[in-house]
Each structure stands twice: as structure tokens, then as C-alpha cells.
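Team,

Forwarding the record for the chain on the shared tracking sheet. I've put the sequence and predicted structure together so nobody has to dig through attachments.
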Amino acid sequence: MTSKSAIWSLRVAPSHRSRNDALPILQVMALIELNAIRKSYRSGDVQTPVLHGIDLLVQRGDHVALMGPSGSGKSTLMNLLGLLDRADEGHYLLDGRDVTSLTAAEHAGVRNQTIGFVFQSFNLLKRMNVLENVALPLLYAGQSHKAARLRAQEVLQQVGLGTLGHRMPNQLSGGQQQRVAIARALVNRPPLLLADEPTGNLDTATAEEVLQVIDSLNRDQGLTVVLVTHETDVAQHARRLVKLKDGRIVFDGIPEGSV
């Protein structure tokens, strides 16, 4: 299933064309497309609706902040985007593929190839040094130790920690640990980063450093970012703000005061 709304067009001017030649159309598929997504949770005989017909498009290279009060459905929406849960109704297209009805094993395969996750807690393995933490997903994917370490060093360089690969997690600041977590999330080269309150455990100055890293990855490498936050100043780093309330999107536009 591919919705026409998931595709937008760019007109590209060729180097040689006559006045009567039509400009060719370059078709670009949205990375994320949600169509009429509904989700409820059941406890005993009580069913609680959480998401009510969500429609959402996220283009490649977009930087989206997702906000809403407690109970708005934003955590449920993030779990659906990350293939950690599945919708009751509707369709989810990820990178052009309908992933709505895939098995759990198929979801895991898509996650490993397409999505990087960053959470409020860093989830680093204390007995491994920084380089080993970042290389671990590649080892699980079957890459050689040499290839995994080379790629891990490359990504650490991108997040400004290229000289700290030998350190243990407890030798790093909170901001540095979160940058290690970002590097680990990106080591498989996923096109999509899902960040759930990535600065929630950090002070203001350190949070700004981490957000600058995410901004640069989005701006310079075209990484698509969807970030959940409660903080307006964090949302201002995004180019697009989506607000949820009572399981519905109530705002989708440019964040006020975006940086």
C-alpha cells in the first residue's frame, strides 16, 4: 500500500532542454506515513482509547518535536513509530513499506535497519568502554570486530567524542554519556532517529550541547529526527512541532521561537 499523499515532487532543471520541454519530476517518498491510526488498551473489561485516527507524514530529513500533556498519547505514538507496539486500526508506512501487520520478528528486523533509539536514560553497559558500547549493535548484526570498531570510532567522531573511546561510562559526564547513546543509535546508519526525552536527565547547558549534536546530524547528514519533549526550549530546536491532546493532533506547524 502506497498513498499518493506520501509522495511529493521536485522539479529538476536539466542542463539542456528546449523551451517546450517539460521539466522532469523527481518523486520522493515520505519516510513516515500514518493513516487513520487508532490504538486502545484493555484492562479487564475496560477498554481505553488512546489514539483517535492519527494521520501524520514525516519527510526524509525532517526534524519534528512531539509534545503533549500526560495522557495525550504521545508515548503511545512513539512506541508505534518505533515498532514497539502495533495499532488496532489504520496503516503505518515506514520508508515506503507497510509495516502495520508484520510479525514481531519482522518488526525487529525493520527496527535494526531503519530506526535508532535514544532514551532519557542512557542505557550504557557499565562493563564496556565507550567504543565497545557503540560497536555492540554491529557485533549483534554479525560484523567483524575490526569493522565494528572502525565504524564505532567514526560515529564517535561525529558526536565529538572521538578521543574518548577508551573511557568507561562512569568516567563521562551526563551529556557525554547521552552523546555515546546517540552514537550507538546511529552506528547502523538508520535514516530515522527517535528520541524520547533525550535531555530529561541533563542540566540546561548540557542539554543544549546534546541538542546541538542532534541538530547538526539532522542538518549536515539529513538524519530524520522525531523527538518527544515536555520542554518548549527543546522543541524550538525542531523545524516542525506536532502537539497532541486527548489522542488527536491539535497543532502541526513551525515551533514558536524556533532556533
